[in-house]
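Before going further, learn to read the protein records used in this course. A complete example follows; check for yourself that the lines match position by position.
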Amino acid sequence: MRHSASAFGFAFDALLDVLSSIIVLWRYSNAAAVHSAHREYIACVILGVLFILSSLCIMGKAIHDLATKLLPEVDDFLFSVSIVSGLVCIILAVVKFMLGRVLTSKALITDGFNSLVGGVMGFSILLSAEVFKHQPTVWYLDGAIGVLMGLIILAYGMKLLLDMVPRMRQTRNYERFE
């Protein structure tokens, strides 16, 4: 769907997923830092900031689409991309959650949450397109889902910052890794 707040959010979340995976790779890139609480907290703070920034972009686009009453245009190619990407994102989320629990890594669990949001957004594109196809009067569903997903990402990002910034400050003098 072109002009879709959900598709924009899905694309933006895909970019965020790549960035969050890079941050998790950085967090585990140094063998000496594998057990570093400070690195874990830094990674979570960066993820929190990225979540907040992406949520503002997603909500901005969704609110703009709702305010201008922009109707989504249905595209069959996006249906197949949404299904495949939604499934892959959910599988990645499950794997990241499992690894995060085994490694007790909040950064990896947060990366899994981001993948889960990507999967939900992929399927929300399908949902809003199908509803719009059968009920054009519900054109606002796509934008409403975009706002909702943006609020969820915003809340998670703010929670990350509130939890991790004090911990990062506490551990900054205890651990130094080059």
